[in-house]
Amino acid sequence: MKVKEVADLVGISVRTLHHYDAIGLLSPEETTQSGYRIYSNSDLEVLQQILFFKELGFPLKKIKEIINSPSFDREEALELHRKMLLEKRSRIDKMITTIDKTTQHSKGEINMSNKEKFAGFDFSHNPYEQEARDRWGEKAVDESNAKIDKMSKDEQKLMGEEFDRIYQKLAALRHKSPESDEAQAGIKVWYDYLNKIGNYSLDAFKGLGQMYVDDERFTKNIDKYGQGLSVFMCDAMAVYADRNKK
């Protein structure tokens, strides 16, 4: 199957498949003389594994390590996926039950204890913030948090609106080459804005872009502005960082 056929079959963007190829996560077995990627059934099985791992929150770097390990066992991995998805379903079922009970409680049909009101929630850690701290250290995160905390509600609202405007402009550019002048001008606006609320080095900026595609939570939120925007931003941010370090 050609890359467009695979993208349509799976429901992901062609750019995402190109990105997987570029980072060595999924390179099709065959390429025609014209340069078309041809995906075999074996390639599709690997892609299925990748998407199972992504659904469970694994970053792309870790997925690559797992599936390229000599000890990787597909059947064993499928069983692990099943167990983890069952656990995830169990937690979601608990939250749905909590919603139903809360509705009944609001109508006066039942009484809920305080403990029952929070059944199914698990906020024992903040994965976004912890991952950022691990990648870039405490200083940049603390500075960003301190600046945002000092903002008034109106200022935070304006910040959110500016985020939206920047993402919308980048979404309109996502079909262009990340190396194009238009893409680089758009991504510079994003870099400059981030440094208004934090202190991001070029390496940190490039790492942030990589997180946009490694972490499905970021990918889903960013791609709401346009399918494939996260991959486009990742590529454009890497180009911007590399060019400006010279």
Protein model, in words:
69% of the residues lie in helices and 2% in strands. The model is unreliable at 125-129 (pLDDT under 50). By secondary structure, the chain is mostly helical. The two termini are 40 Å apart. The chain folds into 3 domains: 3-67, Multidrug-efflux Transporter Regulator, Chain: A, Domain 2, CATH 1.10.1660; 73-124, Orthogonal Bundle (Multidrug-efflux Transporter Regulator, Chain: A, Domain 2), CATH 1.10.1660; 126-246, Antibiotic binding domain of TipA-like multidrug resistance regulators (Globin-like). GO terms for molecular function: DNA binding; DNA-binding transcription factor activity.
Characteristics:
246 residues, mainly alpha, Multidrug-efflux Transporter Regulator, Chain: A, Domain 2, Globin-like, two-stranded antiparallel sheet, 12 helices, 2 strands, 2% strand, globular, MerR-type_HTH_dom, MerR_fam, activator, TipAS_dom, DNA-binding transcription factor activity
